[in-house]
Amino acid sequence: MVSQVSRSLTKIVMQSLKPGFVIGLFGARRTGKTVLMHHIKDQLVNRKVLMVNGENLDVAEVLSSRRLSLLQQLVAGYEYLFVDEAQQIPTIGLNLKLLVDSFPDLSIFVTGSSAFGLKAEIGEPLTGRGIFFNLFPIAELELEQDFLTAKEKLPERLIYGCYPQVITASSADERMDHLESIRNGALLKDILMLDNVKDSIFLINLLRALAFQIGNDVSHHELSRHLGVSKNTVARYIDLLEKTFVIFSLGGLSRNLRNEISKSRRYYFWDNGIRNAVISNYNRIELRDDTGRLWENYCLSERLKRNHYTRYRPNYYFWRTYQQQEIDLVEEFNNKFQAFEFKYSPREYVPPKAFTENYPGSDFQLIHREDYLGFIGK
User: Fold this and answer.
1) 365-376 b/e with 16+ CB inside 10 Å = b?
2) Pairing of β 326-333 and β 49-53
3) C-alpha distance from residue 264 to each of 34, 82, 206, 256 (Å)
4) Distances (CA, A) of 230 to 210, 265, 278, 285
5) Domain at 239, CATH number
6) How many domains does the chain have?
7) Are 125 and 151 contained in the same domain?
8) Would you say the C-alpha torsion 83, 120, 202, 302 has a positive or negative sign?
9) pLDDT tens across 196-241, in order?
10) Do 193 and 303 contact (CB within 8 A), yes or no?
């Protein structure tokens, strides 16, 4: 069951719950934010916890009122206030600040999507009193698998991804049903609510275009021509897709060489299953011509999830020159570079000479299906 998967953030969120602080948990829909909140509530045995949902109109009315008397009635006698779906509450950030200022013994925990700037709205009024985390689809780090089990499940992860309900599904048909439900409904719900946007077909077409470009530099100008919209429209919706944890991007590393490409970006999906649902392709690995892209997307998304959960915060880049030398991922931490190349099949790997000469002392590693758990797991 999903509830039996130990989420990496549980312990650190519980440790962060302190009087006078607001803990924010953000992520895409159906990644398990509500389940995690309930799990933490259940562990606060004999503590007074008020858990409410921002989609409840009565709750939203009180928590958006900025009336201290109403807020006091709501939290009187409680040590903790848990607010699920906090993005549904207008001016939630200012009201949380009022609660923190007025009830310094109260610990507050909120979840929601950042599509409407919820993180910024909460963070700005609560500078120094807010701690924020992101929750992603289940990470390999959280599955506690040995190498043989992980290797057996790897083709399934590459095709269907790691959303909680997908991992626990009992058949391929059930996995596809869940993914298409997420794709058609929950995935885009927040974006489609923004400014009464209704063009879900455009969003799917944009996602499909990005899905076919994994591992390649993406031009907003070319996307705008392909989709028949302005460059600014493409940029706006890509920004929203990143803020709602559907996709993420890497920029190019450029420090020493004039021929390094730095202005382009590459886009990846936080979940392989969503990427495949967008292009409606659930074929087995041996029948596909995009295994390399699936592998690169999987390794990158799992690496970023791992680093977030272990509180490791490097800078991320790809590296490429105009002479077509490239590296899939470069992590920079404390002025030291680690370079990673992703190849599904084991092979010899010689790092590009231009990189080794201009970034001396860098570490290099080839990540392939026979040696990858150390890169994305513990």
Assistant:
1) bbbbbeebbebb
2) unpaired
3) 37, 41, 17, 17
4) 16, 18, 22, 36
5) 1.10.10.10
6) 2
7) no
8) negative
9) 556 678 888 999 999 999 999 999 999 999 999 999 989 988 988 8
10) no
